[in-house]
Model the fold of this input.
Amino acid sequence: MVLCLAVTLIHLALVFLHVAPANAISRQYAKQVEAWVFPVFEQNWRLFAPDPESVNRQISVRTMRTDPDGTVRVSGWFDLSGVDRSALAHNPFPSHTTQNMLRRAWSSYLETLGSDDQPRSERGVMIQQYLRNIAAERVAEHRGGRFDSVQLRVVTVPVAPPGATANGRTTAPTPVETRHLPWWEVAPRDAH
Done:
């Protein structure tokens, strides 16, 4: 009982320091607070003040394996975003995970790694591994087979403004950016 109460009080104190405005105590214990809060207890206010996406992202993955004779085999691209869209379209009660896992992993990747794909903190390394694991698990689930590495491609397309038409026809926006991430090795347990 005492242990449970102590853990609860420590949890409340650490979460409070995380969401409170920056102060001397939260700065002094920033490492401990972040270690406790991320990734499980992360707080944000997007539920109350959502920031709608101004772009759509198509996240795809391909795999690579090296055969015993040294032959390198690279698969075609597999659309991870399409799997999510399909799961949402045919489910009247989609889970929060189905709706947000891949999108939030990519947003966190952009926030922590930037454009050079080099992690600058333990959180950056963790987010990179998280995105890699999502890709490896999903491609193994949908395609199967053995692979040693995965590579992600992210195509960013702006959201068309309402009523955007050309000659009476709706036109698809053109991609703004296509980004290829480096090849990431996966552990044999990821490659089923």
Summary: Residues 2-37 form one domain. The radius of gyration is 21 Å. The chain is about 40% helix and 20% strand.
